[in-house]
Structures are given as structure tokens and as C-alpha cells.
Write a structure and sequence with these properties.
By secondary structure, the chain is an alpha/beta fold. The protein is built from 8 helices and 9 strands. The chain folds into 2 domains: 135 residues; 59 residues, no CATH class.
């Protein structure tokens, strides 16, 4: 449901095949993002930092002036942009999020998304709709809750948090599938997948038991793998 994994950019992949909740910015002491995607293509890696506000909040007052709540929300994006503007913080980010060697060779281009209010406010006033288009700064995406919709491409992604020991799973969707590529390049970095599967209210008892067995199998396989892999859709489970 959360924009950014696919569709926001022409980025074909997500690292570590997960949505990151409450992503830490090393040594940053102010409000952290609500969520973050780390997407990439063959040229760039895009950390997409996401701030979510209430769908009931207004963009403008009755006089057409930008609300204080919107100003504060936009300022959050500027805070994160300021943090990423320092080269040493870029390096700290790559280290903290355990970016692979293939990703460290790409240009790091952070993006910032604000999800705020509803579309109906702009529909009522053409001038405000035009004015809203100029609020979006460089590398920023401003959208309403009306933009959120399910993405089939993201249906297998899990949710994680990160601490000093690395990634740990917090949510496993019922649409999850396992395959060799994800095992090798992504989820072997994520611990507590079994606990997250057991806690899911959307998985059957049989599916939970299957996933718990296969998480361990694929982690062991990936950690002992040498060389490349070839696989097809029939290898998903």
C-alpha cells in the first residue's frame, strides 16, 4: 500500500526486499522517518524516506494560506535532506544499512515523500490545486492518501526494523514467497523472520510451520553458497 517500492521511480529492485519501519539515521537526534524504502537500479540507489500525516489534515486555510501543520511536515523533509547533504552521513548510512558491495558502487540519491491530507481539498479549488504543485521541492514527492493503493509487485515484501545488530523482521504478509535470489541477496540479512511469521494473524498454522522450516533452509543455503545461481518461477515457494 505504501508508495515507493515500485511505481514512484523506474527502480526495479528493493533492498533488503523489505519496507523499513522507523528507519534510524545514525547520530540524527530529531524526528526520524515513519518508513523507508531502499530502491535501486543499475545506476543509482534511492533511499526513499516517508513521512505520514493524518488524512484529515488540511493543506491550506480558508484564506488559501499554507497551514502550520503542513509547514511543520515539510520541514521534516528538509531536516532529512540536510542530514544527507553531509558526505560523512552518506557513508554512515551505507554502513548502518549494510549495503552490499554492488549497491555501494552506485550513486546514492535520497528522496523524500510526504503523505498528507486528501485530494478532495484541491478538487474544491482550482487555484489551490495549482498552488500545491509548487510546494514540492527538489527530490521531494508530495501526495495525498488517495494515491495509496495495493501494488502486486510489492506483495512478497516483508517489514523490518534495524538496530545495532542489523535487520529484524516485524511483519510477514500472507502473500510472501521464498526463492533463491531473495535468500541469497536479501533475507539472510534479516533475523527473527520465524517470530514474525508466528505472530501474523493472516497466515494459517500450516503456512507458518512451512515458512519457519524454509526460512532456516534458505538462510543456511545462502550462507554456504559459492558462485552464481540460476532460477525460475518454478523455484518459488
Amino acid at each position: 500500500m505504501l508508495s515507493g517500492a515500485y511505481g514512484l521511480l523506474s527502480s526495479p529492485d528493493v533492498f533488503p526486499s523489505a519496507l523499513i519501519s522507523k528507519p534510524v539515521l545514525p547520530d540524527f537526534t530529531r524526528k526520524i522517518p515513519d518508513f523507508m524504502w531502499i530502491t535501486f537500479n543499475s545506476v543509482n540507489i534511492y533511499p526513499i524516506l516517508i513521512e505520514i500525516e493524518s488524512p484529515e489534515k488540511h493543506w491550506f486555510t480558508e484564506k488559501g494560506i499554507q497551514t502550520a501543520e503542513l509547514t511543520q511536515a515539510l520541514d521534516q523533509l528538509k531536516e532529512w535532506k540536510t542530514w544527507f547533504s553531509k558526505p560523512r552521513n552518506m557513508e554512515s548510512f551505507a554502513d548502518y544499512y549494510n549495503l552490499s558491495s554492488e549497491l555501494r558502487g552506485l550513486a546514492l540519491k535520497p528522496l523524500y515523500a510526504l503523505i498528507y491530507g486528501r485530494r478532495r481539498e484541491a478538487k474544491r479549488n482550482t487555484h489551490l490545486a495549482e498552488k500545491r504543485t509548487h510546494l514540492q521541492g527538489e527530490s521531494e514527492f508530495l501526495m495525498t492518501f488517495d494515491r495509496l493503493k495495493p501494488s502486486q509487485n510489492a506483495s512478497h515484501l516483508i517489514s523490518v526494523k534495524i538496530d545495532k545488530d542489523g535487520y529484524y523482521a516485524i511483519s510477514i504478509p500472507p502473500t510472501i514467497y521464498l526463492d533463491p535470489f531473495t535468500a541469497k541477496h536479501r533475507w539472510r540479512l534479516v533475523r527473527q523472520k520465524e517470530e514474525a511469521a508466528m505472530a501474523s494473524p493472516y497466515l494459517s498454522k500450516e503456512r507458518k510451520e512451512f515458512l519457519i522450516r524454509r526460512f532456516k533452509y534458505w538462510d543456511d543455503w545462502a550462507n554456504n553458497l559459492s558462485g552464481g545461481i540460476c532460477y525460475g518461477p518454478e523455484d518459488r515457494e
